[in-house]
Amino acid sequence: MITHDVRTYKSAEHLPREDQLAWKIAEVAADPVAVLPEVTAMIINRIIDNAAVAAASVARRPVASARAQALCHPMTPGATVFGLANDRVSPEWAAWANGTAVRELDFHDTFLAADYSHPGDNIPPVLAVAQHTGASGADLIRGLATGYEIQVNLVRGICLHEHKIDHIAHLGPSAAAGIGTLLGLPTDVIYQAVQQALHVTTTTRQSRKGEISSWKAFAPAFAGKMAIEAVDRAMRGEGAPSPAWEGEDGFVAYLLSGPNARYQVPLPGKGEAKRAILDTYTKEHSAEYQSQALIDLARRMGPHIGDLSRIDRIEIHTSHHTHYVIGTGANDPQKMDPKASRETLDHSIMYIFAVALEDGGWHHERSYAPERAGRPETVALWHKISTVEDQDWTRRYHARDPREKAFGGRVVVTLKDGRVIEDSLALADAHPDGARPFTRENYIRKFLTLSDGIVATAEQQRFLDAAEALADLKRGDLAALNFAVGADRMGAPRPQGIFDRVRA
C-alpha cells in the first residue's frame, strides 16, 4: 500500500494531475491486476447478502416508489430490477431502484474507520452497468473489487462526519472507479468520472440526524445513479471540477478541515491486489452497525439480569461515534420517541438495547413495529438508558491492530437495590473476528430466511446457483443475478409522479 498525502493547493500552485488523489484512484481502477480467489469468494457472499435484504424490503414503500420510478425508464438491453422477471430499465435507474432496496432495512455490509460506509452500496450501480453492457462475471468481479478497494481506503483516510458531510461522498467516487474497471476505461476517463462523482454526491448528514426519513435508503442509491451518469459523461469527453479534493475552493478546503489540513489516503501500488473487501463485515441484525455487538451483548446479559423491572438505570460506555451518532450524545429527542420512524429507531441504541434485552434478540420487522415501540414497559426501560463516551473505546474503534479493534462497549446495569451487573463485548458475533464469523453458509441462510414467503423456492435456488457460479458467467449472463417475485408480494400501488404522467 502507498499512502498519499492530500492537501489543498492554491490555484497559482501547479499540481500535476498525476499527483492528484483522483488520478491515483483512477490508476488503481485501471490497473488490470488479478483478483484473489478469497476476494472473489467474498464478492459472491456480498451479492447474496444484498439480494437477501432486497428481498425482505421489496414491498416496502420507499423500495416500491424507487421501482416505480425506474419502470418509467425502460431500455434495451438495460438492467434488471429486484423482484421483476422480464422488465429492463436504463442502468442508472436500475441502480436507483436496487440501491434503495439494498439499503432500506440497514442490513448489509459495513466498514468503519475514520468514517462510516456500507461498501455493498457499490454493487447495484456496478452490476447495473455490467448487465446493460453485456459484461461477464469476471468483469463484474474486477469492477466490484475496485469499488470496495476505493471506498474502504477513502473511509480509512478521510473523516466526513465530523464536518457533517454524509458518507455517500466516498461512495460516488468508488462506484465510478468500479465502473471504470468493469468497462476497462483508460486512466484519464476514470479520473474525470471520479471527480464528477465526488462533486455531485456531496450532501450533509442531516439525512441521518433528527427525524430520519426514507432518504437514508435513497441516499446511496442516488450516489450510485450519479456515478453512472458521471462515467457516461466522462466517456463522452466531458471534464470535471479539478482538482476535486485538493483545489483552492475544493472538497478539503471548504467542506472538510480547511486549507491547512492534510489527509493520508492509502491505495494499492501498481500490480498490488485489491483486497479491501476482506476487511469489511456484514450484519446479523437489521440495525446500525455500531449496535450489532450491543444487541449480542443484550442477548447475553438478559438472563443474568432476570426481571427487567428491577433496573434503575443502564449506562453504555462506548466510542465517540456510537455515543454521538446513535446514542444520547446526539441530543436528538426523536431517538427517545416511541412514535419515531423506523429509520430513527434504527439510529437509537437506547431503543435497540431495550428491545434486545426484552426479546433476547432482534428481528428486522417485528423489532421496529409501532406497537412494539409503544409498549409502556419498553418505553420505561428505553428511557432508563444513556450512553457515555469512553476514550478507550474510542481508541479501540480507530485501532488498526485487529486484536484491539472494537465496535461495541461496556454496559453497566444498576438495579433498584443498588446491585450492579456489567459486561462488555468488543465485536459482534458475526464479525470476522467475532464469536461466530459469517461464512458462505450464513450468507445463504440469511438469503433463504429473508426471502422466505417472498421468493419462490425454485427461484431462490436458481439465484443462489447463479451467484455461486459468478466467476464462470459468460458475457450477457448477468441478468441471472436477480430474483423474481409474484405481483402479490410487491406492495400496494403507489401514487403517480412526474415520470408516470410523461409516460402516459
From TrEMBL:
SUPFAM superfamilies: 2-methylcitrate dehydratase PrpD
Transmembrane regions: none
Keyword field contains Lyase: yes
Sequence ranges assigned to domain MmgE/PrpD C-terminal in this UniProt record: 285-471
Top-level division of the source organism's lineage: Bacteria
MmgE/PrpD N-terminal domain span: 20-263
Family: Belongs to the PrpD family.
Protein name listed in UniProt: 2-methylcitrate dehydratase
UniProt-listed Gene3D superfamilies: 2-methylcitrate dehydratase PrpD (3.30.1330.120)
Organism in which the protein naturally occurs: Gemmobacter megaterium
Record text on subunit structure and interactions: Monomer.
GO molecular function: lyase activity
Sorted UniProt keywords: Lyase
Pfam families: MmgE_PrpD_C, MmgE_PrpD_N
InterPro entries listed in its UniProt record: MmgE/PrpD_sf, MmgE/PrpD_sf_1, MmgE/PrpD_sf_2, MmgE_PrpD, MmgE_PrpD_C, MmgE_PrpD_N
Keyword Metal-binding: no
